[in-house]
Amino acid sequence: MAREVNAVWNVCNQHQLEVFRREGRLLSGFDFAPFVRGASAEFELIGSSTIDEIRDQYAVKRRAAGKVRLRWRRSGGRRRSLGWVPFKRRATRWTGDAVRFAGIDFGVWDSYSLGGYDFRAGAFVEDARGRWYFCLQVEVEVCSGHAGAAVGVDLGLKAVAVTSDADRLEHGRWYRQAQEAVGRAARARKRGRVRALHAKVRNQRRDALHKWTRSTVDRCSEIVVGDVCPSAVGKTRLAKSVYDTGWTLLRTMLRYKSEHAGIRCVVVPERDSTRTCSCCGSVPASSPRGRAGLRIREWTCSECGARHDRDVNAARNILVAGHRHPAEGIPAL
Ligand SMILES: [Zn+2]
Questions:
Q1: How far is the CA of 277 from the centre of ligand 1 (A)?
Q2: Do the Cβ atoms of 129 and 200 come closer than 8 Å?
Q3: Distance from the CA of 284 to the center of ligand 1, in angstroms?
Q4: Which pTM value belongs to this model?
Q5: What are phi and psi of 184, to 5 degrees?
Q6: pLDDT by residue (tens digit) across 282-293?
Q7: Helices (H), the chain
Q8: What angle do CA 122, 40, 67 make, to 5 degrees?
Q9: Handedness of CA 12, 17, 21, 23 (dihedral sign)
Q10: How far, in Å, from the CA of 161 to the mean position of ligand 1?
Q11: What's the CA-to-centroid distance between 301 and ligand 1, angstroms?
C-alpha cells in the first residue's frame, strides 16, 4: 500500500510541476480532484479514500513548504521514504477494539477511547525502526480556561526551561549520554542499533517535555515564552546542547496545550531579558552579558541591590514583556 501511496504522491508532484511550468499555477487539493478521479481502478490495494487524502495532504504540505514541488517519495533503496498510508474517515469503521480498513481488522490498543471521538482523517505511519502506528486527528472541545498563576518561561541551556516562579525543567543531557553507545554502534556498522538509540533519545526528550508542559499548563492561567531561536544559537559552539533541548518542540507543546485548555499563551521577543533587573527595570553594569556571562548563574543588581537567579530573573522579564506589549506577542493560533 505504501508503495502505491508513493506512486500517487509522485504523480501529484509531477502534475503540479507541469501545471506550474505551463500556466504558472499552484494547485489546491480540490484542483487535483478531476485529475485523480477514477485513479483507484489503476491500483490494486489503495482505494479512492486514500487517494483523496493523499492529494489533500500533498496540497497542504506543498503550500506549507512554499515550493513548486515537494521531494519525491521513494519506495526502495537506501533513502526509502518511511511508509505512510493516509485515509479519509469514510474508509474506516470501529469494531470494538479494532479498526477495519481495506477489509482488514487492525487491533488497536485504544488507551484514549478514540472510538468516542469524531475524526476527519488518519494515517498508518511507519517509524525509522519499521514499526507502524495508527494516527488520527480527532475533534475535541476547547476548555474555557482555569484559574492559576501567570508565568514567564525562559528557555536556556543549563536548564531547558525556567519559569518566573522558579519551576525548572532540568536538562536531561539525553543525547550526550547516548553518544558513546551511538559511536560504538556506528563503528560496528550496526545501522539498526544506531537508529534505535537515536529513537530512544528522541522519546526520552519528548517524554520529559510532555510531562513538564502538561503540569505547567495545568497550574497556570497564562504563559509567556521567549522567542529564542535554535538556528541562531545553533551556529555557535553551543550547538550540540541546543539541539538536544528541543526549544521549538517545547513551545509548540505549550501552545497547543494552552489552546486546548483555553488559556493565553504568547511568544515575546526575549532580547535583554537576561541583562535587565526584574526588580528595578534597569540594565545594571553587574548583570550577565555576552558569552562570558553564560557562566554567571546568580548576580546582584548594582542599582537596587536585588539578588537574582539568572534564569528566574529572565523569566520574570519575559512575563513583564508579555503584559506590556500584548500586541507584540504572537497569540496562540
Ligand atoms: Zn535592580
A1: 5
A2: no
A3: 7
A4: 0.72
A5: -60, -45
A6: 888 888 876 667
A7: 2-23, 29-36, 48-65, 174-187, 191-219, 230-233, 239-245, 247-261, 310-324
A8: 60
A9: positive
A10: 23
A11: 5
Cell digits of residue 252 = 509548540
User: 298 — phi, psi (to 5°)?
Assistant: -135, 145
Q: Which amino acid, 248? A: T
Triad 235, 236, 241: Cα angle to 5°: 100
Cα of 196 from ligand 1 centre, angstroms: 49
- Distance, CA of 305 to CA of 288 (rounded, Å): 15
pLDDT digits (tens, 9 = 90+) for 45-95: 898 899 999 999 999 999 888 889 999 999 988 889 999 999 998 888 877
Tell me the average pLDDT across 30-46. 85
121 forms beta bridges with 88
All cell numbers assigned to 239:
550547538
Asked if 145 contacts 262 with a C-beta cutoff of 8 angstroms, the reply is: yes
Ligand 1 center from residue 309 Cα (angstroms): 13
Ion ligand 1, residues whose Cβ is below 5 A away: 277, 279-280, 301, 303-304, 306
Domains and CATH numbers, the chain: 2-65 (no CATH), 88-138 (no CATH), 149-171+205-331 (3.30.420)
**Ligand 1 centre and the CA of 70: distance in Å?**
52
